[in-house]
Amino acid sequence: MDYNEKVMDHFLNPRNTGRIENPDGVGEVGNPKCGDVMKIYINVKGNTISEITFETFGCAAAIATSSVATELVEGKSIQQAFNLRNKDIIDYLGGLPVAKLHCSVLAEQGIKAAISDFYKKQGIDPEVVLFNTK
Fold this sequence. Notes:
6 helices; globular; alpha+beta; 3 strands; 3-stranded antiparallel sheet
């Protein structure tokens, strides 16, 4: 598989790795077909993602997209982080092989799952807050 320099940098030197003790939210997602599993941890201060880390078991693209996703949302509002799309991750990386695009989707889903978990831990329906539904 041919990866560009930016993907390889994030694979070989991933940012924001590890676990947060007592996180405000945790999102765990996986793809049973390829075996990739991502766990995203967040801490929230006010309405801002103050800290975000990840643990990923998977290929180079899975690790790189996890790393980039954390960089793109750290310091952003919860809504901005929730609005992250896999295309944003792909664009930031300068592209991914077609067979690895699903890794960027997993990273997006992991962020959303961590944010949903954050709200659920507070007894708040994430659908109401994030989508303004009743």
